[in-house]
Write a structure and sequence with these properties.
alpha+beta; two-stranded parallel sheet; two-stranded antiparallel ribbon; flat
Length: about 90
């Protein structure tokens, strides 16, 4: 699944990904420790690490302000006065 996500990001020129935190694949800041103790540790999931390794910024669902700031930086404007088209790709 991580490779499919990367291929889609490259194909559609996606520079930012918002991923669900805490999971073993999409965790952007925390992941579960992997031994079913229900403890979270600092780290990246497989997909998040793969995307970041290819220069795609990853944010979790709680970092909406950071995501917005990064979109503004990438689009080259300070105030969001125009709509930015975001591509949402559903992985089945």
């Amino acid at each position: 699944m991580a490779r499919i996500a990367l291929d889609l990001c490259v194909k559609h020129n996606i520079k930012i990904a918002v991923l669900a935190d805490n999971g073993p694949s999409c965790g952007c800041s925390f992941i579960y420790d992997g031994i079913f103790s229900n403890k979270k540790i600092n780290g990246l999931g497989v997909t998040a690490a793969l995307l970041r390794g290819r220069g795609i910024d990853t944010f979790n669902q709680y970092d909406i302000e950071l995501t917005h700031s990064e979109l503004q930086r990438l689009c080259g404007f300070k105030q969001s006065k125009r709509m930015v088209r975001l591509k949402r790709i559903r992985l089945a």
